[in-house]
Amino acid sequence: MDSVLTEPALSRALDKPLGKKTSQKDMTDYRIELGDSRERLIRHPIYGLVNTPERMRLFMQTHIWAVWDFQSLLKSVQQQLSCVTVPWVPTPDPEARRLINEIVLDEESDELPNGSFASHFELYLRSMESAGADTNPISCVIDRIRSGDPISEVLQDSTVPTEAREFVNRSFSIIHSGNSHRIVAAFTYGREDIIPDMFRQVVVKLATYSPEIWGQFRYYLERHIEHDDDRHGPVCRRIVATMCGNDPVRWAEASETARHALEARITLWDSLATRLAAV
Questions:
Q1: Is 234 within 8 Å of 12 (Cβ atoms)?
Q2: Is the CB of residue 245 less than 8 Å from the CB of residue 18?
C-alpha cells in the first residue's frame, strides 16, 4: 500500500473547506505516505502469539511503556495546538484547540463504568494488577520522575525492557524536536489511527479468558477502539491536513515521521514477539 488515508480523498476527511488555496496545487492531491508500514504492523505475528495468560501478562508488561509515553506525546500535541502557559494567549486555530482538548479529556480523565475517573494509563495499570502482571518497573519509573529525576537517566534502569527503552526514546526524540506537524503526524498515524486495528485482534483473544481476570483489560482495549475509531482518529487526521495545508515539504516531513513512528512500533513488536515465543 503506497498511501494511506481512511477516506478516499482528503477533502472527504474534512468536515468543511480549509479556506482559500495558497498554491496552484489543490490540497486533495496530497496524502500521508506510509509505504507498507501500516499494513505490516496490522499483520504482525505478535497478535497470534498473545494466546495464553502468561504471554498476555508479558505483553502487558512491555506494552505499558507505550501506553505511558503515549500520554507524553499527547501532552506535546496539546502544547503545540493550545496554550498551556501563563499568561494565556489564544492560539491561531481555535478548532484544533478544541479538538485536541477533547482528546486530552478522554485520555487523561475518562469516565469509568462506576462513575469514577482515570487516565487510560491508570486504567491499564489496574488491568495489569487484576491480571497478575508486574507493575513495579513502570511504577518505579513514575515515582522517580515525580521526584525530579531526568527521564534519560530513569530509563537506564535495568528493570526497563530494552525494546521499551528504545521505543520511548524514539517517541521523546520526536517530542523534543518541537516540530508541530511532525509531532501531530506521529501521534495521529503512529497511535490514534492504528491502535483500533491492533487492539481488535487482542480483544478477540480475551474473549476466551476469565472475565474476572481480564475484564478490566478488555474494557481498556474496547474503550480505546471506541474513542480512536469514532472520534480521535478522524479528528487527528483533520488536524494534520490543516497543519500541512498546500505545503508539499510539510506533507513529506509529516509522512516521514508517521512512517518512523510505525516502524518504531514494528521494532518493539519484533523484540517482544521473540520473547513471547520463548515462553
A1: no
A2: yes
The residue assigned the cell 494565556 is 88
Print pLDDT tens along the chain (279 aa). 343 333 333 333 333 333 334 444 454 457 899 999 999 999 999 999 988 889 999 999 999 999 999 999 999 999 999 999 999 999 999 989 998 999 999 899 988 888 899 999 999 999 899 889 999 999 999 999 999 999 999 999 999 999 999 999 999 999 999 999 999 999 999 998 888 888 888 887 776 677 677 888 888 788 767 765 667 778 889 899 999 999 999 999 999 999 999 999 999 999 999 999 999
Q: Give the whole-angstrom CA distance, residue 79 versus residue 73.
A: 10
- Peptide bond connecting 113 to the previous residue in cis, omega within 30 degrees of 0: no
- pTM listed for this prediction: 0.84
Q: Which of 133, 137, 129 is nearest to 165 (CA)?
A: 137
Q: Which three cell numbers stand for residue 86?
A: 501563563
